[in-house]
Specification:
alpha+beta; 33% helix; 7-stranded mixed sheet; 5-stranded mixed sheet; single chain
Length: 235
């Protein structure tokens, strides 16, 4: 009876820890790495799945590679003010230009990691919709007809946050975060996707889940499509 009571009391505690694990982890980072800068990059990706295949687009920075529609979150002037107050600075790995301006690809003082992610979770002062990248990558480029996509519906699936790690490329500790959305097309929009798949486009590929897992490789065939590693996030 005592054991049963103990288990009954433990379950809510474990459940609470599981639900708040991300916050607990970020609090630990703030304590452990309080005197070290940490590179943080947050992004969102679109799962676009029609007739058993996933749509991937040619990367802008890596044109030989295909990846899900999506990109780095943008911050608003209001958000910039909040981040400046935390001592957050722009990342210096990607040149600051018209495309990258406002990206949440930043350097955060270690002691402010918990505060940074508390702000990020409020969605205040930052981009909170995947529409911009969808419009820029598929509509403004003419890959899809704009008249069929005056708006889009989507489901928010989950967030993937990598554990902190040292990045040789960034020469610092790094945390990568991805929000995953699933497009919910109308019947007319599904028809537009099928027409795109039938006609083909040099900046788009349609691949299976197995191809994504194998970075584009197909057994017994030449490796002609290079799929990004982070494409696995939409599976």
């Amino acid at each position: 009876m005592t054991a049963g009571l103990g288990v009954g009391l433990l379950i809510p505690v474990v459940d609470e820890i599981a639900q708040n694990w991300g916050n607990i982890r970020h609090l630990w980072y703030s304590l452990r790495y309080r005197n070290r800068p940490i590179r943080v990059s947050t992004s969102y990706l679109f799962k676009i799945y029609v007739d058993g295949r996933y749509l991937l687009v040619r990367g802008s920075r890596y044109p030989n590679q295909f990846q899900p529609v999506g990109g780095v979150h943008k911050v608003t002037p209001q958000g910039n003010s909040i981040l400046s107050g935390m001592g957050v600075t722009d990342d210096n790995l990607v040149p600051l230009d018209a495309v990258s301006y406002g990206d949440i690809r930043v350097r955060v003082p270690g002691k402010k990691i918990f505060s940074f992610f508390r702000w990020f979770d409020t969605r205040t002062g930052r981009e909170d919709s995947p529409w911009r990248e969808f419009q820029e990558e598929l509509l403004a480029t003419g890959i899809l007809p704009q008249d069929k996509f005056p708006h889009i519906m989507h489901n928010y699936l989950r967030r993937e946050a990598d554990p902190i790690r040292y990045s040789d490329w960034a020469d610092s500790l790094e945390i990568l975060v991805r929000d995953i959305y699933e497009l919910v097309p109308s019947q007319e929009q599904e028809a537009a996707f099928r027409q795109l798949a039938s006609a083909g486009h040099p900046d788009v590929v349609w691949v299976t889940s197995q191809q994504i897992k194998r970075r584009g490789a197909v057994s017994g065939q030449p490796h002609t499509v290079e799929v990004s590693a982070h494409s696995k996030a939409v599976l």
